Fold:
Amino acid sequence: MDNDQSRLPPAASGVGMMPGTMQPMPHVTSEDEDEGLALGEIIAVLMDYRWLIAAVCLCALILGLTWVFVTKPVYRADGLLQIEEKKGSGGVFKALEPLLGEDTTVSAEVEILSSRMVLGRVVAKLKLDTIAVPQTLPLIGGAVARRYDGDEPNSAWLGLSSFAWGGEAIQVDSLDVPDAALDADLSLIAGEDGTFEILDEDDRVVLKGKAGVRASGQGYSVFIAQLKARPGTRFLLKKLSAETAIDSLRRSYSVKERGKKSGVLELSLLGSKPPQIALILDDIMNTYVRQNVERRSAEAEKTLKFLDTQLPALKTQVDSAEGAYNSYRQSRGSLDLSLETQGILKSLVEVENAAVLLKQERDELRQHFTPEHPRIQAVDNKLARLNERRKQFDADVSRLPDTQQTVLRLARDVEVSNRLYTELLNTAQQLRVSKAGTVGDVRVIDTAAVGREPVGAKPVAILGIALLLGMLASLVIIWVLRSLRVVVEDPEVIESQLGLPVYATVPHSKLEVDLHRKAQAGGGGELLAVAHPQEDAVESLRGLRTTLHFALLDAQRNSLLITGPSPGLGKSFISKNLGAVLAQVDKRVVIVDADLRRGHLHKEFGIERSLGISEYVAGQASLDEVLKSTAVTGLTVVTTGQIPPNPSELLMHPRFEVLLGELAAKFDTVIVDAPPVLAVSDAAIIGRHVGATLMIARAGKHPIRELEQAVKRLNQAGVQVKGFVFNDLNVSRQSYRYGYKGYVYRYSYKT
Structure:
């Protein structure tokens, strides 16, 4: 209703002009005050929207609690590996170092640890490509199931028996599906006594079986070792492709070097099941160590296979050379080599052995490099030099007697074959020892260990973040609302932008709210100025009474029009209580309810609507008949009378002007409560017949353009607005905004 002062946003109270002069009071500010106003404005806005902030923060906290409740805890397992640099071994193995690989780089090992070679073996060994989990109700089902600690499956909540609610268990030892069903979701429905049936994505049964017995059919094969669930409970069953399973493992797995160039790698794995992630991480490290050992011994294995193919042929060659040598000596008798011949033989054997070893080294290098490689070129150069030396020795041999030459040649073949066979036999034995003793260049320092607490933010931190986000969200909402709501909340804005004085600011009154509710409940109307004369709003109206006394001194009529731009501003509240405070100083006051569309002052005073303005203008009632006395001494009311079909035409009737003239002659003050200016033209019609016009503005209700348009509308009709009354000011909010200035609106009685 129009007199409900509290339905709209609150406003401020006080007199913003100098009595007598009707000019706005000068506004003095300072830099310190301006800074205080900015902070005070922020505090005032926050206090005004405190319930919105509280509601948004409460919603954020509820969401935070829900997140803490439903989020599955994630644990972290970690372990350490050390990458050792390969150093020269010396001794008998030094010659084998080029065959056993080069120094290891940490970056390469990091990539190997994340490769399909390592992770693929782990996936296959631990069957990570098979997923079998109970299906839970979205959002809360998983949280309920995790918190259930009974031995038997939990009973179904809300009658949803197809979902798991805790205590279910399934162990799938083997699952094979057609290639088309890889990565597809299958459903397993538990039956009685461990029986089950498996459905494909189209809910078609593809397999039936029982726990503990392998079931096969339609390209599917499954062995379920354990199944514990209520009949009808659904499980998600899925067979992942190797690529999908490895990618899934990689997403929760990470490797990094701890400390620059330390050679120590830290492996970590995230998951919701601590025992499982520890097992997986340990297997990753062990698989990596095994493949490292295999890689280090691979070159030795390849060389050993080559030597094993050469040794039988060399053994045959040794036996043949020895047989030829012994046969020649027997045919010629026992022959001894001279010292000179023995020296030549020794040199020839050394050259032959060196040449054979270089040829073997060249054959090994050719498996890795082209003939243009520097290492092969170096071997070729050594062979060329050995050939030159051999030619020199051949020249020395040619000068010996024929018998000595033959014996020398046969002895050389025996010596070279024996020495070469012995060298290769020793090399093969060394490679076998090296292969058997290969330990790799990595070792496990720390096995997988899982933290006792979940990783991520703690519940208290999550709630704190939720509260902070709630506050930020509420501030954003307030900013949006304030941006969309450009209204006047300060009476000084009216004075500065419209150039019209604000005669009074009326504080918000909770007592008026109570009186209005009581009246609407049928408890009878009661004036705030009479029931609670000490109220701050009434005191502001007393200030308005004093101001109007000077404002009407120069007016030709003692009548006052009270209107506003739109409905719901408190015009009726101002009219009736202003009339009461005027009557309290022995003034004869009459209030005219000129709102012939929605007038309701008769209800406020508990009198009849009939016999009012409509009847007087129509000539159906006299002046004395339309005057209705009230419980307030000296205060009279003229009601609207019967609601006419043409209110504007009725107000333009000459008899309405006559009514106002007769009332002005009979009473000291005539207060006319008119309809809103922007809604209808009634106020502009009435304004030409009164002495002064006051515009009611309500705090937080209008944009300044609306007030400006209302004043302009009256001015175009020839009605000059005397000033404004700023109604329903929230004094508490103003105290935050302006500090001490907010309290100038309060000066109540104290006993």
Q: What stands out?
A: Residues 1-37, 88-94, 99-103, 739-744 have pLDDT under 50 and may be disordered. The domain at 17-49+484-745 is CATH 3.40.50.300 (Rossmann fold). The longest strand covers residues 75-83.
